[in-house]
Amino acid sequence: MHKFLSARLGAASLLLAVCGPLSTSWAAPVRAPGPDFPQFASADALKAACDSSLVQANAQLRQVERRAANSQWLAAYDAFSANLEDLSNPMQFLSSVHPDKALRDASEACELRWNDFSSSLAQNEKLYRALRVFKPVDATDRLLQKTLLEGFADAGISLPPAERARAKQLNDRIAELGQTFQRNIRDANLQVAFTEAELRGVPVAVWQGAKRDADGRVLLGLDNPSYEPVVQFAESAAARERMWRAKTNEGGEANLKLLAEITQLRKAYASLQGAASWAEFVLRRRMAENPARAMAFLDEVKSAVRQRERTELEELRQAKAAHLMLAPEAVKLDRWDVSFYTERVRLERYAVDQEAFRAYFPPQASLQFALRLIERLMGVRYQRIDGVATWHPEVQTYAVSDATSGNALGTLWVDLYPREGKYNHAAVWGLRSGSLAQQRVSQAALVVNFSRQGLTLDELQTLLHELGHAVHNNLSATRRALQAGTSVKHDFVEAPSQMLEDWVLDKRVLKLFAEVCPACTPVPDALMDKAVAASHYGKGVRAARQHLYASYDLALYGPEPQDPLALWVQMEGDTPLGYVPGTVFPSRFSHIATNYSAGYYGYLWSLVVAMDLRTAFAADKLDARMGKRYRDLILANGSQRPPQALVHDFLGRDFNAKAFFDDLKR
Ligand SMILES: [Zn+2]
Q1: What is the Å distance from ligand 1's center to 592 Cα?
Q2: What DSSP state is assigned to residue 429?
Q3: How distant is the alpha carbon of residue 467 from its chain centre?
Q4: For residues 369, 374, 375 and 380, what is the CA-based torsion angle, rounded to 10 degrees?
Q5: How far apart are CA 333 and CA 339, in angstroms?
Q6: Could you tell me how far CA 388 lies from the centroid of its own chain?
Q7: Is pLDDT above 50 for 183?
Q8: Ligand 1 centroid vs 218 CA: distance in angstroms?
Q9: 438 CB-side CA count, 13 A
Q10: Which of 172, 201, 372, 426 fits 7 for a cystine, CB–CB 3.0-4.6 Å?
Q11: What tens digit of pLDDT does each residue of 516-562 get?
């Protein structure tokens, strides 16, 4: 029930302007809608709250079990599930964001106890029997009933008792190992030491205030505000290599072992269920339907980008030779060269420097710009509420409401900056699902790691991507909480986020900055023209990398038993730049250790849909009529209808891959 949507790998994630609050023309609510974020004074307090939440959950479960399977049964079950979200989600979320390690640990322990509750619930025979005889009144409830029955089947409800117990045991163990995998990355706090000379080329603002080691060397962490500038701009290949290796090996041998065990356990789980592989087991519930279809799609992507990738890599090699004043034959392009020379070629060819954007995109103004864009496009209002206690003093709280009616829709929390022990990528947690029947409002938490110096254009894109997940949660208007917003199929869930990414390349859209931050210097049109031209550069390398991640994930969870590292060495070894000995990339691939397993292809699959959705906004990215239509037909409907049907309603036709493949050629 815990919804967690992460950015794809490789998505990125100096002047500070003072910006006023968002202007609002309507009466201000006093507080954010929905329950306040719970506060825990200590790890012991969280543990006590966890005990009590499970007592309440069990008491409520007994009540639902006693209910007759009459026409009200599904509504009661939906209300019960919604209560479980409120009882458990904030406590579990804290493991990723709370500043106190003791509290994060207590949160993880609580998460394991809730996993145990949830995996038992998923095998509850009384609920299953009631659900089976329940008579839905319409297609919406019928689809929910079908989805829930599939959930029970997937949890092993129809297995003989011993195998059912084994299924639960496997589920609980996989969840525990996934948690450890993430903790190993989050709490490693790895730092890499550099001399000032080695950091030549890296913007001074990135490292000036950083801690130093005993030898006076600068210590930089692996979070995006440190990692990206080093691999993009450090003139020293040795410095780039050190940073790149540290990041690639982030999870270490421990995580490789965990991933191997997770892979085996998932294979065993699929076998229990009569599926040939974990990928087959997972994909039969997805838009793609089976691994063969997903792989055929990936093959099509591969053939579309293969030549482009080779051409780009050759250009980067030539750039390296010119930079080092060596003969091209004498130069080999290394993996830690790719970002660096991509930036150089971009700069030479298009005169675009990502760092130049930071001056125009201060973090707070960027957030307000992104919110204003959603306000303008989708007919909503965000109002900042000050003085709300959350999990960290810098977290911001926004009340989300409908601009026309003024009705409260939900709460958005935003956590912008990196800190020790915080989840170091970009993601949204849908903490609470809205429901019209329950008059229940939504709550989402958007977590990113931006530099206080401002955002690059790529990072602004990341912000819009994540906000796309948050609006999917906040603007949901389904009858049942179980069908709210981001409960859609996993290979569709990225589409609303990816759709919004290229709004940042539109000059008219960027003019909204002036509305929220009159003191900000507007980004010059000429710079944006160059950025748009440059945005296509590197597409071959990027798409090929996403293709590799997606193919690796499907192969790892395919029918043949696999050793994660051996498979990676072979698959990365088949790419033009090859495998780098001594690296253990799968150790940091937390997507596939957790909830994107056999699902990473979904980023590319959803992108097909996202690109097609964008065609409706081709003439005007601020078209409020179209935006409202999009909100009402796609976002508001959550999983009340299959994604293909929602997209068909919006576009007036079936979706197709034309826009996606045309774009790969641009
Ligand atoms: Zn995403």
Answers
A1: 14
A2: E
A3: 10
A4: -140
A5: 11
A6: 25
A7: yes
A8: 33
A9: 25
A10: 426
A11: 999 999 999 999 999 998 888 999 999 999 999 999 999 999 999 99
Parallel/antiparallel/unpaired status of strands 408-415 and 396-402: antiparallel
Confidence of residue 424 (pLDDT cuts 50, 70, 90): confident
CA of 500 to the centre of ligand 1 (A): 11
Beta bridge partners of 414: 396, 446
Ligand 1 centroid to Cα of residue 603, in Å, is 8
Cα 640 to middle of ligand 1, angstroms: 21
Sorting pLDDT into bands at 50, 70 and 90, what band is 353? Answer: confident
Is 501 or 186 the better-scoring residue by pLDDT? Answer: 501
Per-residue pLDDT, 1: 40
**pLDDT above 90 for 665:** no
* Helix extents (H) in 124-160: 125-133, 139-154
pLDDT at 11 over 70: no
Type of residue numbered 70: N
pLDDT at 267 over 70: yes
- Give the Å distances, CA to CA, from 657 to 293, 540, 550, 568: 14, 17, 18, 29
Distance 195 CA to ligand 1 centre (A): 36
| Separation of CA 466 and ligand 1 centre (Å) | 6
Q: Region 36-54: what's the mean pLDDT?
A: 97
Query: Residue 455 Cα, ligand 1 centroid: separation in angstroms?
Result: 18
Radius of gyration of the chain (CA): 24
Distance CA 433, CA 2 (A): 10
Provide the 10 A C-beta neighbour count for residue 110. 22
The residues, ordered by sequence, that sit 6+ positions from 282 with a Cβ below 8 Å of its Cβ are: 557, 597, 598, 599
- Higher local confidence (pLDDT), 422 or 7: 422
Identify which of 5, 6, 29, 14 has the alpha carbon closest to the alpha carbon of residue 454.
Answer: 14
- Cα 299 to Cα 292, 295, 493, 665, distances in angstroms: 10, 6, 22, 16
What would the mean pLDDT of 177-193 be, rounded to a whole number? 92
Global pTM value = 0.91
Residue 7 confidence (pLDDT): 58
User: Distance, CA 387 to ligand 1 centroid (Å)?
Assistant: 29
CA of 7 to the centre of ligand 1 (A): 4
**Residue 149, Cβ density class (10 Å: 0-12 exposed, 13-18 middle, ≥19 buried):** middle
Beta carbons of 283 and 291 less than 8 angstroms apart: yes
Least confident of 32-36, 94-98, 437-441: 32-36
Give residue 460 CA to ligand 1 midpoint distance, Å: 14
Are 594 and 184 in contact, with CB atoms under 8 Å apart?
Answer: no
* Spacing, Cα 428 to ligand 1 middle (Å): 8
Given a cut of 80, whether residue 492 has pLDDT beyond it is: yes
Q: Which one-letter DSSP state was computed for residue 511?
A: T
* Non-local CB neighbours of 36 within 8 Å, separated by 6+ positions: 388, 389
Q: Report CA-CA distances (Å) from 169 to 162, 266, 272, 369.
A: 11, 12, 12, 47
Q: Are 225 and 449 a contacting pair, CB within 8 Å?
A: yes
Counting beta carbons within 10 angstroms of the beta carbon of residue 66, is it exposed (0 to 12), middle (13 to 18) or buried (19 or more)?
A: exposed
Q: What is the rounded CA–CA span in Å between residue 336 and residue 244?
A: 6
* Proportion of the chain above pLDDT 70, given as a percent: 95
**In the predicted model, what is the mean pLDDT of residues 37-48?**
97
Cα(535) to centroid of ligand 1, in Å? 20
What does the domain layout of the chain look like in residue ranges? 189-247
CA-wise closest residue to 523 among 545, 504, 495 = 504
Residue 612 in contact with residue 651, Cβ under 8 Å? yes
